[in-house]
Design a protein that fits this description.
Number of strands: 0
Order of helices and strands: HHHHHHHHHHHHHHHHHHHHHH
Distance between the termini: 41 Å
Helix content: over 70%
Strand content: under 5%
Number of domains: 1
Radius of gyration: 22 Å
Structural class: mainly alpha
């Protein structure tokens, strides 16, 4: 009976996906049919649906999404680009370096790769085009560097993972993503510098300490959002939810009263955009409740663990297989979907071989980030195509070398736990 139930759960889910159904409703329908087949109470669907989003920590997600949208529209992008230019614009391929460093700064505010690409790309890609950079190169740098934003705190995807994993420390996850996020940025800068030298891309203006100090002064208000989240959470002054609410209010004050680039009319549009994003995320999280209940009830994680361990007892090979599975899922599913579906299945496998759930969280987020820039459903890839007018096929071809760099960073994070765990351990969060 359990075998048939597993077939019903997965069969209905993938059939509806294949027919074009939304993943949230596909999960709910598959769960409902399975629960009815098992003879359980239909109210189990509703109970687990509500339980999926009934948590104080989940309040951080709408606040972080709104704060990121406010800062994206409130003049912060221009100031971060100015600061990045003052820091690294003097190098060969200066604008490519500016793009990556600006993504690091902006990602620490928005926590979103799509917001990063849309906001910074709209400014930097035309600038790079004017200075003689290829559109494909400009888009590749913009898209791949945007993934830093999902690793650098605050990242609402980290919060989704924390809940899917059974309530992990959000503070520890935030700190675990900092070193990998910076490592990814450095790796992309090295590769971009290599290509810039090879293709003789231009340098920017010579380095000036005075310009740097001026740029820091203009951008310091925007960077204050990161300090609120990181310092507040790590020092124990705020919970993740409280820091998100304060960051949201701070972003509103800075954008409307300090920078004065966000009007009431624009704020209304920002709220509409945030609600649209939030509703998609929360419906998916809610739908994962009954789906996760079915997965647990049918002991699917245990079956998967036994299946993989029967293939190999090598920790190295298992980690490689798990990364490969998530990378393949990233090509066909959205990021939040992968997190809520795979976490309850894969995490027990990793725990059985001694991998920290915090380390897996960083691996999972980077894996999903790579999925955002791979066809056929890479959301960031579509934004890059829209900004440059280049086809998905063209961008994929030129982005592939950057993806190799990202995969190398992923392997380093996978096989060197200290990259993720050293900072939270040093801060006493683990």
């Amino acid at each position: 009976m359990e075998t048939v139930a597993i077939g019903i759960l997965l069969g209905v889910f993938f059939l509806l996906i294949f027919l074009g159904g939304h993943i949230s409703y596909s999960m709910m329908a598959a769960s409902a049919v399975t629960i009815l087949y098992l003879g359980l109470s239909p109210t189990q669907v509703i109970n687990t649906l509500v339980d999926g989003v009934d948590g104080f920590t989940f309040l951080a997600i709408p606040f972080f999404i709104l704060a990121g949208d406010i800062m994206a529209q409130g003049g912060i992008s221009d100031r971060l680009i100015m600061l990045a230019d003052a820091l690294v614009g003097w190098m060969r391929g200066g604008l490519a370096m500016v793009n990556i460093v600006a993504s690091l700064f902006f990602g620490g505010i928005s926590g979103s790769a799509t917001a990063d690409t849309a906001s910074l790309g709209a400014i930097l890609i035309p600038m790079m085009r004017k200075q003689g950079y290829d559109d494909e190169f400009s888009a590749a740098v913009t898209m791949t560097s945007s993934v830093q934003g999902m690793l650098i705190p605050p990242s609402h995807n980290m919060i989704i993972y924390a809940m899917a994993a059974g309530g992990l420390s959000v503070s520890a996850l935030f700190m675990a993503g900092i070193v990998p996020g910076v490592l990814l940025g450095v790796a992309l800068m090295i590769f971009s510098f290599y290509l810039s030298v090879k293709r003789n891309y231009p340098k920017g203006n010579p380095f000036s300490l005075r310009t740097l100090i001026k740029a820091v002064g203009k951008s310091i208000w925007g960077l204050g959002t990161v300090l609120i989240v990181v310092v507040g959470v790590v020092a124990g002054v705020f919970t993740a939810t409280e820091s998100a609410a304060i960051a949201c209010l701070y972003a509103l004050v800075v954008s409307m009263l300090v920078y004065r680039e966000l009007s009431w009319k624009q704020l209304l549009n920002v709220l509409k955009s945030s609600i649209k994003t939030l509703s998609t995320v929360l419906i998916l999280i809610a739908a994962s409740g009954p789906f996760g209940f079915c997965i647990t009830y049918l002991k699917i994680p245990a079956l998967v663990v036994d299946g993989l361990l029967s293939l190999t007892d090598s920790k190295f090979v298992l980690l490689l297989l798990i990364n490969l599975v998530i990378l393949l899922l990233g090509m066909i599913l959205g990021m939040a979907s992968i997190i809520v579906i795979t976490t309850p299945i894969i995490l027990p496998i990793l725990l059985s071989i001694g991998v920290s759930p915090i380390q897996f969280g960083v691996m999972l987020i980077l894996n999903c980030g790579i999925g955002l820039i791979t066809p056929p459903v890479g959301g960031v890839l579509f934004i890059g195509s829209g900004l440059t007018g280049k086809s998905i096929e063209q961008l994929t071809k030129h982005t592939f070398p950057f993806l190799i760099v990202m995969l190398i960073v992923l392997l380093l994070i996978t096989y060197i736990p200290a990259l993720s765990l050293a900072l939270p351990q040093a801060l006493g969060l683990l």
